[in-house]
Design goal:
It is built from four helices and no strands. It has one domain. By secondary structure, the chain is an all-alpha fold.
Amino acid sequence: MLERQPRTPGSLERLVRAGLAASAVALAGAFVAAEYVGAGAFGLVVRAAVGALCGAAAVSAAGTGGASRLGRGVRAGAAAYAVLGIATAFLLEGSVPPLSRGALPSYAVAALGALLWTAPGRARVRGGAAG
């Protein structure tokens, strides 16, 4: 019998997978974040968590570690979806206009959550002589 080799997805397919995953998480996160509008510091933690989950879902769906050119694009797209999710939360809740100055810190926290949570690790160099 002939065994078929698994098909390797192309860059476009991986980007679409990442976008679909991040949009689903952003929409679900919008409903959660809408409950914490006006909650002070804890509200910012929730927004950062929405960003981190968007980033994790996108990177996982794309199958990239985030260090390649494709990975950087996936991470940037995840940050954009995180911001859109928080804007949707403001629309759902209704007390903060999404384009107001008061919403900007929330957007920055969500984008940073997505970018920092999915940042590629750095190689660690151990000091001392090899033994």
